[in-house]
Amino acid sequence: MTATCRLPCCASPRRTVSELLDRGLRRNRAAPLPHEGAQLGDADGNAARFSIDVRGATIADVVFRMTSCATLVAYGELIAETVAGMRVELANGLTARDLADALPGVPALKRDRAMLAVAAFRSALSKVSTNGKQS
Question: Hey, what domains does the chain have and what are their CATH numbers?
Fold first, then answer.
């Protein structure tokens, strides 16, 4: 039996729904950060809200509050992990399609949760101007 290579060139990112859910459940309980967006919901009763901390024009940290849909929490965690360290104007370009493509294990009936997650994230981004002050 041979050992699995653990070098960065061979390691795949830990981006399955269950792995993101595990990490997302911890982040979902964190206290809100300074720039908090509106709580948005969908027709299925799911709700999402993001808050972010910005230093300069860079996203320093992201937390969220989501209803208990595993897919929605996984999408929220994927956003949080992806945009940390990113400039605000670049993070605003994140799309629901980007999330769906990055997490192919989501059943077709639940992929629309990506739109809710992105809309809630953009709501938090709208609270930040380009100089990092609350608008």
Answer: 17-125 (3.90.1010.10)
